[in-house]
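Translate sequence into structure tokens.
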Amino acid sequence: MTTLVYKKVSDFRVAHPHWFVLCLATLIWVYYLSTLLGTSTAHHHHHAHHDMHAQTGFASMTWQWMIMVFAMMLPMTSGTIRNLVNSVPIYRQQLSLALFIVGYSSVWLVFGVALLLATHMIQALSWTAKLQVLPIAALGYFAAGILSDAAFRMRLLNACGSILSPRLRGFKADLDVLTIGLKEGIKCVKTCAHVMIAMHIAGHGIVQMGILTAALFYEATLYRNKKHVLRNTCYALAVYQLIVFYFPHFGH
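Result follows.
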């Protein structure tokens, strides 16, 4: 019985080498949902995220950014990971997966740090207080919707997941895999940065994160934006943010 179970688990891991990132993302989403249910209302939790910059240190904000990246962006690499792991010897698969994640995450880390620093510097400027009279979150999502169908983004989206096979052994093979992770991270940032920036402006609400993750996954894995799902999702969130801005009680 034990041997049969072990064989089935092994067969599953071989057939689905991206299982680890999906499990990791699932655990993070379970944590997010438990946190959401633990608050008095989803509206309160949204504002808890929105006030994050004022209540936590930079290191904590960076960590929360990376957790969000793991939840939202890492599952998008499932196809790339499957192609990568299947192109290396079995004894190198786990190491290759780890190196890919390190390279991919490093790009998002640099982008996140730059975004957080830019946010801090902008908030420190005296004239930014005047922006509070504008529906900035709605404008951010509206701009993200426009960019979602841009021709340059479609080219980047179609290029995601197209990788060259790494060498099979030694340090150069490790370097190849790390480079693949870096390149995929760069392509992913270029493809999805506009959405992450819009969500950052809006305050990282968990419900909005879930909606955007579903739209991004649908776009990347099923239709390559043929249905304009991401664009329409951003527009819908822009309308929601506009309503909340002018009718604050709507979001309660």
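Note: The mean pLDDT is 81.
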